[in-house]
Amino acid sequence: MINLVGKTKSELEEFFISINEPKFRAKQLFEWFYDKRESDFSQMLNFSKSLREKLQNESKAHSLSFSDSQFSIQTSTKKYLLQTEDNRQIEAVIIPEEKRTTLCISTQVGCPLDCKFCATGLMGFKRNLTTAEIVDQYLLTQKDYGKDYGKDVTNIVYMGMGEPLLNYENTLKSLKIFTSEETRGLSRNRITVSTSGIPHRIIDLANTGVKVKLALSLHSAFEEVRSKLMPINNKYPISELLPALQFYAKETKTRITFEYTMFAGINDRDEDIRELGKLMNKLPSKINLIPFNSISHMAPDGISASLKSTTREKILEFADKLREKNLTVLLRNTQGDDIAAACGQLAIKKS
Fold first, then answer.
1. Does domain 2-60 have CATH number 1.10.150.530?
2. 257 φ/ψ angles, rounded to the nearest 5 degrees
3. Of 88, 148, 195, 212, which is most buried, counting CB atoms within 10 Å of its CB?
4. 96-150 pLDDT per residue, tens
C-alpha cells in the first residue's frame, strides 16, 4: 500500500496521473490532509465514490499509530508515544499557552549527538524519521488534542527527539508541506527549527526560501564550556557557526533565537553574561533562558548526572543583566516536567 501522507503536491499529482485520475485531485487531497486535517478517505466527498473506495483499498494516510499518552494536570501539556511501522517509538508533545498551542515534533528515533543535558541522547541513535512520520505527528496529535480540548495547533517547533538538520532532506520536505499555502492552519512565522548547529545545512536551509525561524541550541558562549555540554561543538565550534547564522538571519530577515539552558555554576556567571552580549551583538538575535529539566528518569552518569538547574531567582537576575545590555531576553516556563515532557526530557526507556 502506498502512503500518501508526506508527499508534496507534485508527488501527489504523479500518483493521481498513475491511476488515471486528473492531477487537480492532488490539490484536493493535499487540502484534505493539511487544511481540513482529514485522513479518512471515505469522508472526502468531492471525490467520486469509486475513487474514495480505490484510495481506501490501495493507499493509506498514516505512517504512525498511537501507542500511549500522558496528560499533565498542572499545565494541560500532553505527551504522545507514537509507534512506527517497524516498531520504533518516538515522542511528540502538545503544549497549550494563552495565545498559542505548540506542537513539539521529533525528526529522528533517538539522537547521535550525546548532548549531556538531553535525555534523548542517552537513547543513542536508531534512524531518521521519514517525511511521512514527521508530518504524521502533526496530523495525529492535532486531531486528538483538538477533539478532547478544543484547541488547534498554531505553532510547530522542531525541538523533539533528534537533530533536524542531520535529517535534512526529510525535515525540509516536511517544512515545505507545513508552509504551503494550502496548509492554512499554519504559517512560516509560527514554525521554528531548533538545531545544535550544522553550519552547511543552516546555509542550505537559508537558500531554500522556506524562511522559517531558526533556534540554535547554544547553552554557552564559551567554546570550551559548550564542548563539554555538547560534543558537536568540537566539530562545529561557535566560530564556525556564527557566519552561517549571520547568513541565515540576512537571507530570511529573521532573528536567530539562542536556546540557553541554565546550569548552576556552569553557564550562569557574570562572565557568561559578558560573552553572550558580545555574541548577540554580532547578529539579529534573542535569547531564550530555560531552566534545566531533570533527566534522572534515564539514569544518567558522568557530567550528565552532576548537572543542576540555576535557581529561579538567579535566572531572573541573569535575565535582567542581559536586558541591561539592550538584549532581547525571553524566559521559558517549564511545562510538562511532571510527565517527562519538558525541554530535554524526551526519550524512550530501554525495556
1. yes
2. -100, 125
3. 195
4. 988 899 999 999 999 999 999 998 888 889 999 999 999 999 999 998 998 888 8
As a whole number of angstroms, the distance between CA 145 and CA 141 comes to 6
DSSP annotation string for 265-306: TTS-SHHHHHHHHHHHTTSSEEEEEEEPPP-GGG---THHHH
| Confidence class for position 52, pLDDT limits 50, 70, 90 | very high
Per CATH, domain 64-339 is 3.40.50.1450: no
254 CB neighbour count, 10 Å cutoff: 19
The pTM of the full predicted model, rounded to 2 decimals, is: 0.94
Contacts of 81 (CB under 8 A, 6+ apart): 66, 67, 68, 69, 89, 90, 91, 348
Grid cell 542550505 in the structure block, residue: 204
| All cell numbers assigned to 96 | 497549550
**Catalytic (active site) residue 91:** yes
Quick one: cell of 192? 521554528
Which residue is catalytic, options 104, 111, 118, 343?
A: 343
Catalytic residue among 91, 163, 259, 275: 91
Spell out the domain ranges in the chain.
Answer: 2-60, 64-339
Residues 2, 63: Cα–Cα separation, whole Å: 10
Known catalytic residue at 13:
no
CA-CA distance, 350 to 134, in Å (whole number)? 22
The strand pairing partners of 103, in sequence order, are: 94, 156
Give the orientation angle of helix 270-280 with respect to helix 312-323, to 10 degrees.
40
